[in-house]
Amino acid sequence: MIVKRRPDKSGFERNLEPLKILGCFKDEEGETKYLMSFEGEPHPEEVSHSEVIANCPTLLIDFYERYFVWRDEFKELSDIEDEDIKKITFDQFPEVILGTVRSKRHGQLYIMKWAESEKCDYVPASEIKNTSGVNLLLIDYLKTLITYS
Fold first, then answer.
1. What class has domain 18-55?
2. pTM
């Protein structure tokens, strides 16, 4: 695979549509970088973590989930009831994501702790991905699952 080291301007700065994150690595300074494909570009580019978060956090979540969340060590539950599933509302502020489970009926769920509360709830992945600001909590959680060799 040929990778562009980084043109004068990134794909984001050239207003190209990001297509997919292909991989991640740590550079010489220990910063997380991603290999990313852009529409109309034949080769992937190195892109910084901050650029990906600013421009396409949902693609980053999709990347992490594709490679890290669906592994066998994550517990699969079959007995989560509808009333145990929480939707994100503006009356509670999410503080941290503590873990993840997979439900046969509800799909991927994250265990969310709410600010100023001891309460935790199961929250569907789609709720988190599509809620601005909360998706950054998910990125922080998923990033902790990565081990670099």
1. mainly beta
2. 0.68
